Amino acid sequence: MKVEKMTCTIGAEVSGVSLGEASRSTALADEIKGLLLQHKVLFFRDQDITRAEHVAFARHFGELEDHPVVGSDPEHPGLVQIYRNDKSDNFENSFHTDGQWREKPPMGCVLRCIESPPVGGDTIWVNMAEAYRNLPEDIKAKIENLKVKCSIEHSFGASMPEEKRHALAKANPMVEHPVVRTHPETGEKILYACGFATHFANYHTPDNVRYGQDKTPGASMLLNYLTSQAAIPEYQVRFRWKPHSVAMWDNRCTQHYAVQDYWPAPRKMDRAAIMGDRPF
Ligand code: SIN
Predict the structure, then answer these.
(1) Which Pfam family, an example, fits this chain (predicted)?
(2) Residue 204 phi/psi, 5° resolution?
């Protein structure tokens, strides 16, 4: 296996390995997991594997989960089909960590390109441990014990008819997560606020709020500041897709953004999301 770093902070391209073979080898999968913890997102080219191999590879790392809004391959449950051929049905062009609206968001994902547009459609990943490390110390102190409320309703649900949106919210109630989470395997502290966060759950303390305007817009200005950190290029890597390219990311310490600059060309991706633990 050859491993080449793609930036100073995040991402490595791994060559000389077949994920089909890795789908049948625990030793190989363990080696890849070690690289993932080190680089946070791994890229593999020319992985002409079957959907069953894609699923089997991802299953080395945990159970897979379907998505409440985006459908899965009927023959391969857990393999979510992010198939875009219309500008109106995109949800991925916002910095986010997958499933932050779940109590236990996925620990990682394996995304394989089925069809790429001739130009555009790149994905950007961000190292959110680096984003946390670089925050000013006074901000770190302020957010140390803060919690955010996260919901699927105001993102995936927003364009739905009201009844359908309410049903989505009922089936996926709002959850609360720490703004600074700790990586369960590396111990790194991670800035864990993204577009799925609606507001802080516990901002309104005497230290933070003397008058109404300290809370509104004070709290939302802080939340906007935190979520905007993912847009800093020094924390990012950008990947150009080709058919059979694969990206695997550690969803606990990264965010990503699929750039929507390719329409009307289609873009088709199969994604296996691996179940994770409750953030702490
Ligand atoms: C995602 O947001 O999980 C998918 C990213 C992509 O399609 O590039």
Answers:
(1) TauD
(2) -80, 70
